[in-house]
Backbone:
């Protein structure tokens, strides 16, 4: 089952470790389609932004599509992995727990940020991130870098969440199936078609969908396709392209599905995320 990138790349966050003296570190990396970063974790938070291209990140109990104009917040000590949907230039921010991040929050700085979430990236934040120092090493931050970092953290605090995540189950068989659907949603249209690939019966998988995700195979697959539609719309793809990518015969067929399931027009639905 081809649910993982064809080429794993090493995680190199050790070259950009945030510290109490320099609580925000930035990294820039270009990655090719079908490559990825193996599952890993670290004691600081991470923000992943796609400057160009679309990446998919599996983190904690969910999987998330991150197009341009969006970012994924990953709390400290949460295992995560990256796969590249199309050639991408990725900005990564590492945030130390002592960072001046949410000054209005009660308790620890990350109290309101314990879960992964996709965030809207403002034009200001995008420009600020582009100007952060991405050099590796442990040198102290310059005064300019400190000011830029403070502004980036302020923008993160104001960033609104957007619905580009999908819950993943704990059961290994169902998790493998869900990850495969996310990577190749059109390979099989029915649960029976997928069942043979994970070594479980259709009845068992249907039960697991209800027990672990509170939904049916058809409903979860549809949510996966809608999340992909939001990601493609955020990347400014035309409606005809989005419909074709999701396996619909025409833009009108895709529009009918959105009206039926979401109770709104495709334009309004796609704007609700982007």
Residues:
């Amino acid at each position: 089952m081809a649910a993982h990138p064809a080429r794993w790349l090493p995680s190199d966050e050790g070259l950009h470790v945030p510290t109490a003296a320099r609580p925000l570190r930035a990294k820039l990396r270009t990655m090719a389609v079908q490559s990825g970063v193996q599952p890993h974790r670290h004691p600081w938070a991470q923000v992943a932004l796609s400057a160009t291209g679309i990446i998919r990140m599996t983190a904690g109990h969910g999987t998330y599509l991150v197009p341009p104009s969006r970012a994924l917040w990953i709390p400290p000590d949460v295992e995560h992995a990256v796969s590249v949907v199309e050639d991408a230039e990725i900005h990564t921010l590492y945030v130390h727990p002592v960072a001046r991040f949410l000054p209005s929050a009660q308790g620890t700085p990350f109290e309101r940020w314990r879960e992964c979430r996709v965030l809207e990236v403002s034009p200001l934040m995008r420009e600020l991130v582009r100007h952060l120092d991405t050099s590796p090493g442990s040198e102290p931050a310059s005064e300019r870098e400190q000011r830029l970092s403070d502004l980036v953290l302020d923008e993160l605090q104001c960033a609104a969440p957007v619905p580009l995540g999908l819950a993943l189950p704990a059961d290994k068989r169902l998790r493998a199936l869900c990850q495969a659907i996310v990577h190749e949603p059109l390979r099989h249209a029915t649960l029976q078609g997928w069942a043979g690939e994970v070594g479980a019966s259709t009845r068992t998988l249907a039960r697991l969908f209800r027990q672990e995700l509170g939904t049916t195979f058809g409903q979860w697959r549809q949510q996966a396709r809608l999340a992909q539609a939001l990601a493609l719309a955020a990347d400014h793809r035309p409606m005809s392209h989005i419909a074709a990518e999701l396996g619909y015969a025409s833009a009108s067929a895709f529009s009918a599905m959105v009206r039926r399931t979401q109770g709104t027009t495709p334009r309004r639905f796609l704007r609700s995320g982007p």
Q: What stands out?
A: Residues 36 and 50 are 14 Å apart (CA to CA). The chain has two domains: 7-165, 170-272. The longest strand covers residues 24-31.
